[in-house]
Amino acid sequence: MGNVLPTISTLFIVISAIFVAFGWNAIMKGRREQHQKLMMAGAIFALLFFIIYMSRTIFVGNTSFSEEAPVWIRDAYFVFLIFHILLATVSAVFGIVTLLRAFKKQWAKHKKLGRWTAVLWLCTAPTGVMVYVLLYVLYPGGSTKPVWEAIFG
Predict the structure, then answer these.
(1) Opening angle at CA 122, ends 119 and 125, nearest 5
(2) pLDDT at 133
């Protein structure tokens, strides 16, 4: 499968961010129904990303960063990767809570948290693309080992 799954999952994050950006714009213009549809589409693409990412991690493995990259690039990549993982985790939690607020029709809480969630997501998506570019384009990665194999041998 090579880079197909990482490419697809990265594409899904970009699509998700585009939907979030348009959804945010829609609510700023008072278009609630359009906002709801766009945000749900963004959430679905984010979920599809997560399913592909976790499936790949469990059954194929994560790609290690290139051993041929200069040490300072590798070090910078790992610092950036940790930042991205933390940002993505916080964004995902905020996204789930924001969606739950909407489903419960807690509009004031949804609106207050939604602003932060959208900004976090619109920062997370580009960092995910940068991780992809560094790992699969600029410095093609090394070996993979499935989590499944690492746990159960």
Answers:
(1) 145
(2) 94
Per-residue confidence at 151, pLDDT binned at 50, 70, 90?
A: low
pLDDT digits (tens, 9 = 90+) for 49-61: 999 999 888 888 8
CA distance 13 to 34: 20
Structure tokens at 80: 């950036």
Tokens standing for residue 24:
């945010």
Please give the pLDDT value at position 46.
Answer: 97
Distance of CA 22 to the CA centre of its chain: 17
Q: Say how many residues make up the chain.
A: 153
Distance in Å from the first CA to the final CA of the chain? 22
The mean of the pLDDT values for the chain is 91
pLDDT of 67: 84
The residues near 11 (Cβ < 8 Å, ≥ 6 apart) are none
**Is the four-CA dihedral 40, 92, 110, 18 of positive or negative sign?**
negative
Inter-residue contact 87 to 120 (CB < 8 Å): yes
Tell me the HSE value of 111 on the side-chain side, using a 13 A CA sphere.
Answer: 8
Three-state secondary-structure class, residue 62: strand
